[in-house]
Amino acid sequence: MYDENENIVNAGKFVEIGDHVWVGKDVKIGKNTRICSGSIVGWGSLVTKAFDTPNVLLAGVPAKVRKENIHWDPHCNNLFRKGYRF
């Protein structure tokens, strides 16, 4: 964005999202943010800063680290289907 004198008003900044990151529905990710590999961002969260630790669960408005050392597998979603028996 520029003002009437062509000066930059809202300079772009970085957004880094690592490998194997699961971002829930309605998540908002702002500029100047980082989500490290293996992390999960909970539904409706607002990410407003850089998180430098991998394998964390981020959630909330603003997002905070809720759990560390998490791991998830996209191939195991059948474990949570209705009627599945352990």
Structure description:
It is built from no helices and 9 strands. With 86 residues, it is mainly β. The model has no long low-confidence stretch (mean pLDDT 88). A hairpin with a 4-residue loop joins strand 8 and strand 9. The strands form 3 sheets. The chain has a 4-stranded mixed β-sheet, with no helix packed on it. The chain has a domain of 58 residues: UDP N-Acetylglucosamine Acyltransferase, domain 1.
Write the layout of secondary structure elements.
Elements lengths: L14 E3 L4 E2 L4 E2 L3 E3 L4 E2 L4 E2 L2 E2 L4 E4 L4 E5 L18
Parallel strand pairs: 1-4, 2-5, 3-6, 4-7, 5-8
Antiparallel strand pairs: 8-9
Task: Specify the CATH class of the domain at 15-72.
Answer: Mainly Beta
Strand order of the largest sheet: 2-5-8-9
CATH topology of the domain at 15-72: UDP N-Acetylglucosamine Acyltransferase, domain 1
Helical residue percent? under 10%
